[in-house]
C-alpha cells in the first residue's frame, strides 16, 4: 500500500431506501478505514434529478446512526473536501468537463433521442463508439462553425468521452485480481448533459474520488463493468498515479434459488431487506426494516460482515465491531456471491439479545403488553424475561415446515408470556397435557395444595419450597403438572415456584379455584 492516508467513501444515490447490500458495502468500507486509521466519507451522488426521492438522504443518515457506522466526513458532518452533495458541486464538474474537451479527450454531441433511436433500429447492437461516431452529429463529424452555431442557438447537447479502440485496460482489483478488458467493447459514455448542466455518475464519481483523495473504492460487484471506463478517465485526466485501488464486493444472493437478493424475497419469506422501515413518499407503501423487526444493530452488523468474508475457523462467528475491525481482511473477501441466510440472521440476534441485561428487553416488551391492554412494572417484566428468554419457539419456515428456534426477538416472547399477565379464562379439556395430567382426584389434590399454600407466610420461591416440598414428600404427591394447568392453562411456562411467587398468593389461589371449578 502506498503511504497515502487511507480514505474511503460510501457514495449512495438518494433514490429510495438503502438496500441491505448497500449497508454491507458501507460496513466493509468502515471496517477497512478503521483498521487502517483512515477516513470514511459520506458522499451523496444526486446528479440524476429524475431519480431523486425525498427523504432518502435522511433515511441513509439515520440508518448508519442506528447501526453505529460513523463517518468522519461528508453530508451531515462537513469536512475539508466539501460540499459532499454532488448537486452542490456543479461548477467544479464543469471545469473538469472543459478540461477534457480542451484536451480533445471528449467531444460534444447533438444527437436527439429520436436520432439515436433511429440509429438503433438501423444498426444491430448499435453502440456510440469509434465505429459509429462519425455517422452521428457531434463535434468530430461537424465543422467547428456548425458546432458553434448549434450551441449558440440553444440546442441541447451532451459531452461524450472519446474512447480509443483496441486498448487493453487493466483493472487491478483487490478481490478479483487483474481484470483486463479491451477498450473496443466500451461506448463513448455521456459525461455531461447541457439540459440540466449536470455531469453523469461516471464523471462526478471520478472527479470527486480524485478531489477527495480517495485511496480505495470498495463497492458492489454491479459497478465492476464501469471500472475500465473509470480507469480510462483517470488516465485522461492524468491522475493515474493517485488512482484509488478497486475492490468489488460479491453480490448478495437470494436465500433460495438463483439471482440476487430482492425485496420480493424478503416479502415472501418474511424478512426485511432495509435497515429501517421505509414509507414510500409516492406510493405510501411501507417496507419493513431490521430495526422495527426487533433486530439489534450489533447483530445486523455482525451477520452482514460475514456475508462475503469470514475470519476463518479459529474464530467465533459472534464478533463485535471492534473484533471485526481487527480481523477484517479485504483481500480475503469472496469473489462468489454470498447467499443471504435470514435464519442465521435471527440466530445472530438471539446471541446478542440474550447477552443483554433483562432490563434492556423491557421497553420493547412493555410496548407489546400495552398493545394488548396490559400494564405491568419494569421489575415484573424483567422478571418474566429472566424466566423465559431461553425458551424455544415454534415457527413455520419458507416451505411450510414446522420448526423450532431460540427466542430471537422480544416479540417472540409474547405468546410464551401472556399467562403471566392474563389468567386463563378457559382450559381445554381435550389438550393432550390436560388429559394426561388432570384425572379423577386431581381436583381434590389441588384443593389440598391450595390450603397448604394459603397458610404460607413467606410466598417467595424459597418460602413456598420449604413448606410445599415437605408436604409433597409426606403425602407422596406429585402435583406439579396439574398445578401448571391451574396457573398457565397448558403444559408450558417456567418453574412452578417461580411462577406462583411471581403471581402472588392471591392470584395463585384464584387461578387454582378457577381450574378446579372448570375441570372438576
Ligand atoms: N452512486 C453509486 C451508488 O449508488 C456509487 C457507486 C460507487 O461506489 O462508485 O452505488
What does this structure look like?
The protein is about 45% helix and about 10% strand. Helix 1 crosses helix 11, helix 13 (about 360-370) crosses helix 15 (about 410-420) and helix 19 crosses helix 21. It has helices at about 20-35, 55-65, 90-100, 115-120, 145-150, 200-210, 225-235, 265-270, 290-295, 295-305, 320-325, 340-355, 360-370, 380-390, 410-420, 430-435, 440-455, 460-475, 480-490, 495-505, 505-520, and strands spanning about 5-10, 40, 75, 105-110, 160, 170-175, 175-180, 190-195, 200, 215-220, 245-250, 250-255, 280, 285, 340, 390-395, 400-405. The mean pLDDT is about 95. By secondary structure, it is of the alpha/beta class. The protein has four domains: about 1-75 and about 250-355, HUPs (Rossmann fold), CATH 3.40.50.620; about 90-200, Glutamyl-tRNA Synthetase, Domain 3 (Glutamyl-tRNA Synthetase, domain 3, Alpha-Beta Complex); about 355-410, no CATH class; about 430-520, Arc Repressor Mutant, subunit A, CATH 1.10.10.350. The longest helix is centred in the first third of the chain and has 16 residues, at about 20-35. Strand 2, helix 2 (about 55-65) and strand 3 (about 75) form a beta-alpha-beta unit. Glutamic acid binds next to helix 6.
Q: What percent of residues adopt helix (DSSP H or I)? A: 40-55%
The main sheet orders its strands as 4-5-8-9
Low-confidence stretches: none
| Fraction in beta strands | 5-15%
Compute the average pLDDT: 95
- What Rg, in angstroms, do the CA atoms define? 32 Å
